[in-house]
């Protein structure tokens, strides 16, 4: 009973993350995009704790009341940012499924997977604090879970096509390992200078080559 009460109170404290309304007119769409871009820049410069709607509105050049016409709170803006980023990751995963995976040498497959996925991390402003927010802010936790589930499910299918003939549960386990290693490495690489980033990526590719080659039974050359 006590546990249920605590859960109920936590749910009541959750902020709504849906936008006030779906922007339809060109002006509203541009304003919404401006709010998201400004929030990305502020998230990187001031951090999550000091980010608030008053600061966002000031940088956008509108009143807080006008900002609330688009988003009810800070969490809703961050949720929209995270959702947009996940949509770009989903597009990449779909693109990978269209590759001739069965014919690709393992090294080429790893190169293309890493390079293609890394682009989504480089394009997203303030990707590290955004990912941290998705993990730590209760209203954004569903995005973090969606990200993991989406990558694991799709990469499990990809691994089967490149020759990893294991039970789906085992492929999902390997896919989760793949996710944890690549995700954390991408977040490091985007903040490194080009020389260090190149070395980190080379190490990442070497680790993935060893991991997948082992589960492919030594195949993949």
From TrEMBL:
Keywords recorded for this protein, A-Z: DNA-binding, Transcription, Transcription regulation
PROSITE patterns from the UniProt entry: HTH_TETR_2
Family annotation (PANTHER family): HTH-TYPE TRANSCRIPTIONAL REGULATOR BETI, HTH-TYPE TRANSCRIPTIONAL REGULATOR RUTR
Polar residues composition bias: residue spans: 1-12
DNA-binding region range list: 52-71
Segments of this protein annotated with the region Disordered: 1-28
Recorded superkingdom: Bacteria
Pfam families assigned: TetR_C_15 (PF17918), TetR_N (PF00440)
Gene3D superfamilies attached to this UniProt entry: Tetracycline Repressor, domain 2 (1.10.357.10)
Protein name, entry field: Nucleoid occlusion factor SlmA
Coiled-coil region(s): none
GO-annotated molecular function: DNA-binding transcription factor activity; transcription cis-regulatory region binding
Ranges where the HTH tetR-type domain occurs: 29-89
């Amino acid at each position: 009973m006590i546990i249920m009460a605590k859960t109920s109170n936590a749910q009541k404290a959750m902020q709504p993350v849906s936008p006030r309304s779906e922007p339809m007119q060109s002006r509203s769409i541009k304003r919404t995009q401006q709010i998201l871009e400004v929030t990305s820049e502020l998230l990187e410069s001031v951090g999550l704790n000091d980010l608030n709607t008053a600061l966002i509105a000031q940088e956008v050049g509108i009143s807080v009341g006008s900002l609330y016409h688009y988003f009810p709170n800070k969490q809703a803006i961050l949720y929209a940012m995270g959702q947009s980023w996940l949509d770009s990751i989903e597009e990449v995963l779909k693109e990978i499924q269209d590759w001739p995976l069965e014919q690709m040498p393992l090294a080429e497959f790893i190169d293309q997977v890493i390079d293609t996925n890394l682009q989504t991390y480089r394009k997203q402003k303030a990707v590290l604090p955004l990912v941290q927010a998705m993990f730590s802010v209760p209203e954004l936790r569903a995005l973090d879970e969606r990200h993991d589930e989406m990558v694991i499910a799709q990469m499990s299918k990809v691994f089967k096509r490149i020759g990893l003939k294991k039970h789906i549960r085992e492929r999902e386990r390997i896919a989760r390992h793949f996710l944890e290693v690549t995700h954390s490495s991408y977040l490091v690489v985007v903040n490194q200078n080009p020389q260090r980033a190149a070395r980190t990526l080379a190490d990442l590719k070497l680790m993935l080559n060893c991991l997948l080659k082992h589960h492919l039974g030594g195949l993949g050359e």
